[in-house]
Amino acid sequence: MINLEEILIFVCEYFKVDIQLMNSKSRREELVIARFMYAVLAIKYTRETYEQIGRQIDRNYSTICYAKKTTKSIPFFNAIYERVNKEFTEKLIGILNTKNERDLF
User: Fold this and answer.
1) Is the pTM of this model over 0.85?
2) Where are the domains of the chain?
3) Cys-Cys link to 48, which of 24, 52, 69, 96 (CB 3.0-4.6 A)?
4) In angstroms, what CA-CA distances link 65 with 34, 56, 74?
């Protein structure tokens, strides 16, 4: 199972942002987009609550709800999400295949 930390690391690497900046108060566009993508991937791939997802990036429940709503309703964010989700899914499949291969031996 994938956890919030792994999703956060993936998103930071993908968008080339520092993990500490994800927790900052900055509203720079690249950070906002990275936080939104972290939130929607975390919602999709974990069973964590919105509160737990937000706590990882020093945000609250309502920020995670807003990220989910915005990503689906605004074409700009939706297009970014589609690309990020595709790459994340490919990486996740690779991780799971590696774990399964190790389990065989």
Assistant:
1) no
2) 4-104
3) 52
4) 15, 15, 14
User: What is each CA distance from 52 to 34, 43, 78, in whole angstroms?
Assistant: 17, 10, 23
Return d(Cα 102, Cα 55) in angstroms, integer: 33
Residue type (1 letter), 57 = I
Measured between alpha carbons, how far is 72 from 40 in angstroms, rounded to an integer?
10
Q: Which single residue is written with the structure tokens 């995670």?
A: 64
CATH 3.40.50.300 fits 4-104, yes or no: no
CB 8 within 8 A of CB 56: yes
Tokens of 23: 């927790």
Q: What does the pLDDT profile of the chain (105 residues) look like in tens digits?
A: 789 999 999 999 999 999 999 999 999 999 999 999 999 999 999 999 999 999 999 999 999 999 999 888 888 888 888 889 898 888 877 766 665 555 555
What is the C-alpha separation between 97 and 18, in angstroms, rounded?
Answer: 28
- Check residue 105 and give its pLDDT: 53
